[in-house]
Amino acid sequence: MARLYNEVLRHLPDRLGRESRRRYLERTAQAYGRDSVVGRGCRVLAPELLTIGAGVVVARDVTLDARGGLELEDEALIGFESVLLTHTHRSDEVGVAIQHQGMYSAPVRIGARAWLGMRVLVLPGVEIGADAIVASGAVVAESIPARAVAGGVPARVLKER
Questions:
Q1: For residues 32 and 52, is the Cβ–Cβ distance under 8 A?
Q2: Which residue in 11, 87, 89, 100 is the catalytic one?
Q3: What is the number of alpha carbons within 13 Å of residue 116 lying toward its C-beta?
Q4: Of these four, 31, 94, 108, 142, which has the most CB atoms within 10 Å of its CB?
Q5: How many CB atoms lie within 10 A of CB 119?
Q6: DSSP line for 92-143
Q7: Pairing state between β 63-65 and 83-84
Q8: Annotated catalytic, 89?
């Protein structure tokens, strides 16, 4: 079923696409809130570990990697081509090729009404607090508190809202 989504349903345009993605995620995700929208081209990994609150908007071509657990709280907004990772390579051992070190997972939570701009990368284990804003192009390696405005590579808090 996940392959059907990632190879067919995610590419369907307009109303047919939005409705198909909604129905698929209502059946497969832990939760899919009322009035939420997942845009065309969005890739979803492990939808059974994905929770989407009410009124969430996920723009086009976003990757939602829920293998380690992913929660998008009510009215969160995820910008175009963002990547939310919960599963990645270990890199602890110097002198050992990365591909031989295994993988690790950690949950990601995006707080209510948080806004991630275009092409934001969120790494495993990160929490972005309610009402926070993350600037386009940021790489979020550490958690961002509620009501913070953050940006940069790596992302850091720039100011409070």
A1: yes
A2: 89
A3: 34
A4: 108
A5: 16
A6: --TTS-GGGS-EEE--EEE-TT-EE-TT-EE-TT-EE-TT-EE-TT-EE-S-
A7: parallel
A8: yes
Core vs surface per residue 44-81: b (16+ CB within 10 A) or e: bbbbebbbbbebbbbbebbebbbbbbbbbbbbbbbbbb
The length of the chain is 161
Segment 49-98, tens digit of pLDDT: 999 999 999 999 999 999 999 999 999 999 999 999 999 999 999 999 99
Structure tokens at 57: 């908007």
pLDDT, averaged across the chain:
94
Residue 15 token pair = 């109303």
140 compared with 19, residue with greater pLDDT: 140
Three-state secondary structure readout of 9-60: HHHCCHHHHHHHHHHHHHHHCCEECCCCEECCCCEEECHHHEEECCCCEECC
The two structure tokens encoding residue 83:
């990547």
- Specify the pLDDT at position 4: 65
pTM above 0.85, yes or no: yes
Mean pLDDT of 8-24: 81
